[in-house]
Structure formats: C-alpha cells, structure tokens
Fold:
Amino acid sequence: MANAQQVLAILKQHVNLTQEQYADVLPLCLTALEELRGRLRPKANEGDVRVLNAAAAMALCRWQLRESIREPEMTFMKAGDITVRGQGLPFAQIKTLREEALLAAAPLLEDSGFFFRSVL
Structure:
C-alpha cells in the first residue's frame, strides 16, 4: 500500500526544499494520494510509480500555489539596466509537470470527465 512518505520521496527528486517545507508538503502528499486512490481503476496498483509521480506533482503544485498566496513574491523585475530575480519556483513548469504526470497515470485512473454527444 502506497503512503505519503513514498510520494514525498519522489517530490524530493523534483525540488529542493527545507525540512520545514517538506513537513508542510507531507499532508498535501497524503491528500493527493487519497484523491488518486479514489480515481483508481479496480485492478490498478496504487504503488505504481505513475500514481506516485502524479501524487507528488499534485502535492508540489498545491504547495507552490499555497505558498504564492501566503507570501507573494516577485520572481522577475527589470528597471532599466537592473534586473531582479526572486527565488520562487516557476509555477507554470510545476503545473506542466503535474499535467504530464497525470497523463502518464491516466491508464490507471477512471475517467472523471463526462462526454456529450449531439442532441437530436
């Protein structure tokens, strides 16, 4: 059975955070894993690396979004010849990582979308 620590271990491969930040991300890892468990196909293995990767990417995306709301930082500013860059993580890249991880896990997940056909 997969657990939040496994998800956190994968997340650590993508981003270097402080121990305090990792502790902050751990509950998000559990939440993401539980969300994916609820979407798994009947015979899918929740310990599959694709599921764990998707949970890690979801947790990272949610953590970064929450951090940007808590402490909004300017990540880039240019004034004349002076350029200032912050230390914030590139949210667009994290979002892309999440989307790619979910696409990779898609064969293991039930389709949660809906489909409309033409109305006669």
Observations:
- Residues 7 and 56 are 5 Å apart (CA to CA).
- The chain has one domain: 4-108.
- The chain has a mean pLDDT of 82.
